[in-house]
Amino acid sequence: MSIIIVADDHPLYRDAVNDVIDRYVDHELRLQAADLNQVYQQLSQQPDADLVLLDLNMPGMNGLQGLIELRRQFPATAVAMLSAHDDKHTVLEAIKLGASGYISKSLAHDALAAAINQLLRGEMYLPALSFQSTTEETVVEPESNVREQLTERQFQVLLLLGQGASNKDIATQLHIAETTVKTHVSAILDKLELDNRMQAGLLANRLPGQVLN
């Protein structure tokens, strides 16, 4: 059973998230906070909290600086950003700084519940926008180099990571066990020298013309 902290300074939105959690998410305890100081207070009392849903613009955040400090002081607790704006630069910067996910406030209740449950399974949640190809200048690893380093199944998993699929989604589509997916993801990160599945997904999207058969 999970401990979740909902941190947002807008009572109506906070109540809406609380309602989604109470109705659709299996949890032991749900706490709330209206500013960053209250988040620290809640985590001091519940250091084993599993997930903080953290409003990007609430008092005390100072942009992503609040995320940096929170991850530094409570590294074992997953943090997902809540924001009305999901521009790609901010999403990727948040992930780079240690966020486990980035949730748009425009998500419907069922999608929000799915995102929270995905995060509680230890998976990353990102809006589809963040997986689209970037216009920034990047070095694209040739497809042949990637294929040579991965097995055929690992390459299939990589392409699905590029679509933002969760481990459960990948397992269903490839008709394999979820534990097997986790093994493949770990192998992909190791072989391609990547830090996380977000980087793997971005790499997959930079491979030209790739569609999973």
Structure commentary:
The chain has helices at 11-24, 36-45, 65-73, 88-96, 109-120, 143-149, 152-162, 167-174, 178-191, 197-206; strands spanning 3-7, 29-33, 51-55, 78-83, 101-104. With 213 residues, it is an alpha/beta fold. The chain has two domains: 3-131, Rossmann fold; 143-206, Orthogonal Bundle (Arc Repressor Mutant, subunit A), CATH 1.10.10. A five-stranded parallel beta sheet has the order 2-1-3-4-5, with helices on both faces. Helix 7 (152-162) crosses helix 9. The chain is globular. It starts with a strand and ends in a 7-residue tail after the last helix.
Question: What's the overall average pLDDT, rounded?
Answer: 86
Q: Can you say what the CATH homologous superfamily of the largest domain is?
A: Response regulator
Number of strands: 5
The ordered string of helix (H) and strand (E) elements is: EHEHEHEHEHHHHHH
> What's the end-to-end separation, in Å?
38 Å
Helix content: 40-55%
SS strand fraction: 5-15%
- General form: globular
**Highest CATH level, the class of the largest domain:** Alpha Beta
Strand order of the largest sheet: 2-1-3-4-5
- The radius of gyration over CA amounts to 18 Å
